[in-house]
Records
---
Amino acid sequence: MPVIDRIAAFADDLTGWRRDIHAHPELGFQEQRTSELVAGKLAGWGIEVHRGIGKTGLVGRLRVGNSPRSIGLRADMDCLTILESNQFAHRSEHQGRMHA
């Protein structure tokens, strides 16, 4: 199966994970729930996970054979102290905090 088809097969899951994270925003250095969610997904895919980086951060290391080559991807997990005015079902459940 081509890579794009394999990614498309995860579209509903990806949307669900994004909406879950959006509904449960956590401030910087308090992203316990989000960090656990991300680490669990990575570990479930067989990716080596290192937790506790800068308190709540994590690193996933994908290895292929014995090659020292790697690719780094970075993503923020923290929210901002902003009042969300959206009305969709996955809006922030925490007043005054949102992913924006």
---
Amino acid sequence: MGQNIKANGVNHLALSTSNMKEQIAFFTDVLGMRLIALYWMHGVEGCWHGFLELNETSAIAFVFNPANEKAKVEYGVTNHGHTGGPSAPGTLQH
């Protein structure tokens, strides 16, 4: 015990979005972040995963699922429970 372990980064945190293009445009054009990856999300049909660099070891990611736009906000419930399921825009996806 007594060891002081501190995290120095996180691979990524993923937030749901209903409009990937606008989300990326805001974070790159307004906040000056760099888009580092954009691809289909783990083989889930119609879903996209976009990564923006926070620093050398961390990123913020956005997940677009066509069903996100219709997902309802339920306080205390932030996730579908499966990375391929819809989540309300702005909620933590994974």
